[in-house]
Amino acid sequence: MKHITKILILTFLCAIPAWATPIAADSASPATEAPALPEGEKRLRQGIIIIGKLTQSMAEINNKETADAAVPQIMRLCEELRQWTQAFNNLPPLSETETIVYEDRYLPIIRKINKIMQAQADRLAAAEYYGSQNLPAALIHVAQVGH
């Protein structure tokens, strides 16, 4: 599980998976409600959602104005990611079975996220961060959360 955490932290861009979209409270009947997820899995999903928000922020950058406007949000999400990392690392260790299940379930998603992140990072770098002085520093700050 630490391997998955490291992958999440070392990246800063992804798409929010469909399963992460909240379901309206009245849309599920009591007979069809899913069982509660274990805390480790909930936390893992929360991390993916935070990185999804970072992806959205980066994907919306297409000029200097949007680049500068994205910096405060990226910094806020970086802080959320830092707090998520601390909370995740404070969870009790996962069993070997849980680790295998979560890696099977989430590693393909995380690998896809990494490809999307790299493409967005390359796009922003090729555009020279649209002339923003603060965007490169904000993105470096996000990448350093896991170090």
Question: Nutshell version of this structure?
Answer:
By secondary structure, the protein is mainly α.
Explained architecture:
- The chain has 147 residues and is an all-alpha fold.
- Helices cover 66% and strands 0% of the residues.
- Helix 2 packs parallel to helix 4 (96-126) and helix 3 (64-89) runs parallel beside helix 5 (135-144).
- The relative contact order is 0.21.
The whole-number mean of residue pLDDT values reads 79
Number of helices: 5
Computed structural class: mainly alpha
Straight-line distance between termini: 17 Å
Percentage of residues in helical conformation: 55-70%
Rg estimate, integer Å: 17 Å
Instruction: Give the oligomeric state of the chains in this entry, treating copies of one chain as homo and distinct chains as hetero.
Output: single chain
Biggest beta sheet summary: none
Shape: elongated
List the secondary-structure elements in sequence, H or E: HHHHH
Total E-strand runs: 0
Poorly predicted ranges (pLDDT <50, ≥5 residues)? 1-30
Strand fraction: under 5%
Features of the shown structure:
147 residues, elongated
Question: What's the layout of helices and strands?
Answer:
Elements (H helix, E strand, L loop, with lengths): L1 H9 L28 H21 L4 H26 L6 H31 L8 H10 L3
Helix pairs in contact: 2-3, 2-4, 3-5
